[in-house]
Amino acid sequence: MEDGTFSSPGYCADTGPGAFDVKNWDAREDCEVRQILDRIADKWSLLVIALLDERSMRFTELRREIDGISQRMLARTLRHLERDGLVKRTVHPVVPPRVDYELTPLGASLHSTIKALVSWTEEHQSQIAAARTAYDAAASAGTAAADAGADSGSVRAG
Fold first, then answer.
1. Mean pLDDT of 96-115
2. What is the pLDDT of residue 142?
3. Alpha-carbon span 38 to 33, nearest angstrom
């Protein structure tokens, strides 16, 4: 292989074990790592994975449990998760047709990571809320000071 060429169209640097470098999360559209991160970090995917960790569910059950998701978005999310090997879709030969969704072993392994992220968020939510309040107060004061400076500048100019 020639120096400077990629090993495949989706190649975007060494992403093997121990290669935890943000520069490896290439923003190019053909970077597979980035595509996977975008998929699993999507708010709908996180909710679907969390719900399916508890048990297999039907489409209508998922839609009822996920507030604000449209039928089209749920179908699209499930299709993507199935394509990525995280969700298994089972069609039962009954009338009316019944389709169940469940996590694959790969999806279940991802759920433990999601749980760790949620636990971190719950543990630090009060600190984050305090930081937001402080930031908003400082930003408000900064905006008020900038507005006052602009007003006094226009008085001087006039």
1. 92
2. 79
3. 9
